[in-house]
From TrEMBL:
Belongs to the 'GDSL' lipolytic enzyme family. The keyword Transcription regulation does not apply. This is Uncharacterized protein. GO terms for cellular component: extracellular region. GO terms for biological process: lipid catabolic process. One of its GO terms (molecular function) is hydrolase activity, acting on ester bonds. It is found in: Secreted. Transmembrane segments: none annotated. It comes from Citrus x changshan-huyou. InterPro entries: GDSL (IPR001087), GDSL_esterase/lipase (IPR051238), SGNH_hydro_sf (IPR036514), SGNH_plant_lipase-like (IPR035669). Keywords: Hydrolase, Lipid degradation, Lipid metabolism, Secreted, Signal. It comes from the Eukaryota.
Length: 402
C-alpha cells in the first residue's frame, strides 16, 4: 500500500532507493544495550514512528540515488539504436527529418519520432541517455553512465541484415563492449570496475531482424529452407546464449532480455497483403512463439550462474495488450504507420522530409517497423514496474534491489 502512496510524491529514482532502504530496515538490528532487537514479523513500528523513519530515509542520502544503477549498456537493433549506424556504410539510417521530430535533439539516428525504449528506462533510473559507441566523443568520463552499441539491421546471426550494408552484429557489439571495458579499467581500476559492472544493467533487444530481415526473406536468405521455426529458434537461442555468457564472463551481472514483439502486426507485414484488412499476419506471429518461449526458459538456466540476474521482458504480450485495447492506452490507429508510403503506410518506410501524421501520440507505429515514442514510454514503464506477466522472474525495479 505504501508504494502506491510514494508514487504520488516521489520520483521513480527515489522509489528505488526507498524500497531498498525499507527492505533493509525490516531486517536491521537496533542497539538496545542488551544485544539489540530485530524489527521484523514479531515487532511492529508505530504508525507515526514508521512514517517519521520513511521521511528521514527518503532524504538521508541524496547522493546514493544516482548510484542504484551505475550504468546502462545497450545491445540491440534499430529499436534501440541511437545513432551508431550514422558512422557506418549502411542504408539503415534515420538521421534525417522527420525522424526525431519530437525529440529534444532532433534527428539523431533514433528510429522513432522521439525517445526510444531505453531512453525512457535511463530517465527512470536517473541516468543520461547512453551514448552511441561509434560516436568519436564517446570516451573518458562520458562512458560512466553507460554506452549504447545497438545497430539498425543487426541480428543474433552475423548474416542477418547484410543486405543493408554495414552493421554491428551481436557478436561485434560484444567485442565493442570489451573495448569499452579497457577504457573503463584505465579510468577506475580493475577492482572498482568489478563493482561498477555489478551495479550496471545490460539491456538486450535482439531477434526481430533475424526474422524480418532473414528468415522471412527467402529470396535473399536460405535459413527458412534449412530450418523449421522451432529449429531456427534453437539456432538463434544457442548463438544468443554464447554471447550472453561472454558478457557475463567479463563482469556484467544484470541483464534485461527483451522478447520479440508481434511482428505480424507491424505495418510492413500488414502491408504485404498476406492478411485481410485490419488483421495481423498470423503465420508470422506464430513462428515467433518458439523463440520467445525459449528465451524465457534460457533466463532460468542463466540465473543459475553466481551473482547473475537475467530478466525476460514480454514484449509480445505488452504490445499485444496495446493492439487489443488501444483506447485504454490512448491510441486509435493501430494498423498503419504515422510516416510511410503504400498499403498501411508500411510498404516503403519513412523517407527524408516526408510529412508525418500530426496526431502522433494516437499512433502505435511510427514507421513501417518501429513504434512511436508513446508506445516506447509504455514498454519502458512495464519493464521497470511491470507485473509477472510483463517481466520474468522479476521486473527491473526489483532487479536493482536484488
Amino acid at each position: 500500500m505504501y508504494s502506491n502512496i510514494f508514487t504520488l510524491f516521489m520520483s521513480p529514482k527515489t522509489l528505488i532507493i526507498l524500497n531498498k532502504k525499507i527492505k533493509n530496515l525490516f531486517n536491521m538490528r537496533i542497539g538496545t544495550g542488551r544485544g539489540g532487537m530485530v524489527i521484523g514479523s514479531n515487532q511492529r513500528l508505530s504508525f507515526t514512528g514508521f512514517w517519521v523513519l520513511i521521511v528521514i530515509l527518503s532524504y538521508s542520502n541524496g547522493v546514493a540515488e544516482s548510484q542504484v544503477v551505475r550504468g546502462i549498456f545497450v545491445f540491440g537493433d534499430s529499436l534501440v539504436d541511437v545513432g551508431n549506424n550514422n558512422y557506418l556504410s549502411s542504408i539503415a539510417k534515420s538521421n534525417y527529418y522527420p525522424y526525431g521530430v519530437d525529440f529534444e535533439y532532433g534527428p539523431t539516428g533514433r528510429f522513432s519520432n522521439g525517445k526510444t525504449f531505453v531512453d525512457f528506462i535511463g530517465k527512470i533510473m536517473g541516468l543520461p541517455y547512453p551514448l552511441a559507441f561509434a560516436d568519436p566523443n564517446t570516451n573518458g568520463a562520458r562512458l560512466l553512465g553507460g554506452v549504447n552499441y545497438a545497430s539498425a539491421a543487426a541480428g543474433i546471426l552475423d548474416e542477418t541484415g547484410q543486405h543493408y550494408g554495414q552493421r554491428y552484429t551481436l557478436s561485434q557489439q560484444v567485442l565493442n563492449f570489451e573495448s569499452t571495458l579497457n577504457q573503463l579499467r584505465g579510468i577506475m581500476g580493475a577492482s572498482n570496475l568489478t563493482n561498477y559492472l555489478s551495479k550496471s544493467i545490460a539491456i538486450m533487444v535482439f531477434g526481430s531482424n533475424d526474422y524480418i530481415n532473414n528468415y522471412l526473406m527467402p529470396s535473399i536468405y536460405s535459413s527458412s529452407f534449412y530450418y523449421n521455426p522451432s529449429q531456427y529458434a534453437n539456432l538463434l537461442l544457442n548463438h544468443y546464449a554464447r554471447q550472453l555468457l561472454a558478457l557475463y564472463s567479463v563482469g556484467l551481472r544484470n541483464f534485461f532480455l527483451a522478447g520479440i514483439g508481434p511482428l505480424g502486426c507491424i505495418p510492413n507485414q500488414r502491408g504485404s497483403g498476406q492478411a485481410p484488412p485490419g488483421r495481423c499476419v498470423d503465420y508470422v506471429n506464430q513462428i515467433l512463439g518458439p523463440f520467445n518461449e525459449g528465451l524465457r526458459s534460457l533466463v532460468d538456466q542463466l540465473n543459475k550462474r553466481p551473482g547473475a540476474m537475467f530478466v525476460y521482458g514480454n514484449t509480445y504480450g505488452s504490445v499485444g495488450d496495446i493492439l487489443n485495447n488501444p483506447a485504454t492506452f490512448g491510441f486509435n490507429v493501430v494498423d498503419r504507420a504515422c510516416c510511410g508510403i503504400g498499403r498501411n503506410q508500411g510498404q516503403i518506410t519513412c523517407l527524408p522530409f516526408a510529412m508525418p501524421c500530426f496526431n502522433r501520440n494516437q499512433y502505435v507505429f511510427w514507421d513501417a517497423f518501429h513504434p512511436t515514442e508513446a508506445v516506447n514510454a509504455i514498454l519502458a514503464r512495464r519493464a521497470v514496474y511491470g507485473s509477472s506477466a510483463d517481466c520474468y522472474p522479476i521486473n527491473m525495479l526489483n532487479m536493482t534491489l536484488h
